[in-house]
Amino acid sequence: SALDFAVVDGKIRFGLNAVKKVGESAVRAVIAAREEAGPFASVFDFCERVDPQVANKRALESLVKCGALDSTGSSRKGMLEMLEQALSWGGRSHADRLAGQGSIFDLGGEDEPQAPTRPARYPPISADEYEKQELLALEKETLGLYVSEHPLQAIRDQLRRKVDLPLTDVSARRDGDVVTVGGIVGAIRQLTTRKGDPMAFVRLDDLSGSVEVIAFNSAFAAARDLLEADRVLLVKGRVDHKDGEVKLVALEVTAFEAVPERREVRLRVDARRTRAGVIRDLADVVRGFPGESPVIVALDTSLGPRMLQFGPEFRVRPEPDFFAEVKALLGEAAVA
Q1: Residue 253, φ and ψ in degrees, nearest 5
Q2: Of 21, 8, 99, 9, which is closest to residue 61 (Cα–Cα)?
Q3: Which of 95, 159, 304, 320 has the greatest number of C-beta atoms within 10 Å?
């Protein structure tokens, strides 16, 4: 990245100047060091080449948290754990270079100055990494938005099955319609009404857009513990068109709980008693629920047990409606 946002090969590179707590002088020092000697090999190499007094602890911490030093191959957690050591390492390196420059004048130019000796290797950095949600939270903290992935990306299919519509479609609903939506809390503002009742304005975001949710006294009281930033919520509310803006008046707020997706679907078929063509009919059911999970069928045949795996074009989305159709076709015992 450069100082400001830039378009490179049709993609936007995030401007380093927009990373919180870094500052323009630190960014210019980073860019100058990179242009002089190429990419940084590690956080220790960074601290050797960029003056720690310019790119100080706060700046370096932000650069690590946002992912700017991921190109070194080290984990963000590992780099943050070694931050103090890396800064101390860099401080000593810069002090050594300053001492070396002073010796040039002491020598009167009679001999070539010796460059400070660089260690053969840097201290090892742990490969342990934060969970994905923690990494995304660090990005949001330092950049103000998610860059590598949206927190809802991994649960989008599960969330979609719990809601009536994406947030971007709320504005198309009529005034007074009651809908259920879901998303992540992007911002929250609490206040007190003239009557002294607590309430909150909550910005709910999903992958399509956002909507402002108003939680009045009763809804706010019931959901007080759930209304916090970065929490994924389901909101049942009444559409409110007012003054050219669309809001959702909360009637009920609940936490969204993601459940582990089934990685594969295993079914059992007794081929000795099942009519001919049942596997073909099963394939038609699978086609109706396209997804990512492979389908494996355990067949009981007159020659003994056999395993059949459907091809990659027959991967399925393992949801309740799919299993209901499977049971209707093969019987209750078919679902392993």
Answers
A1: -125, 125
A2: 21
A3: 159
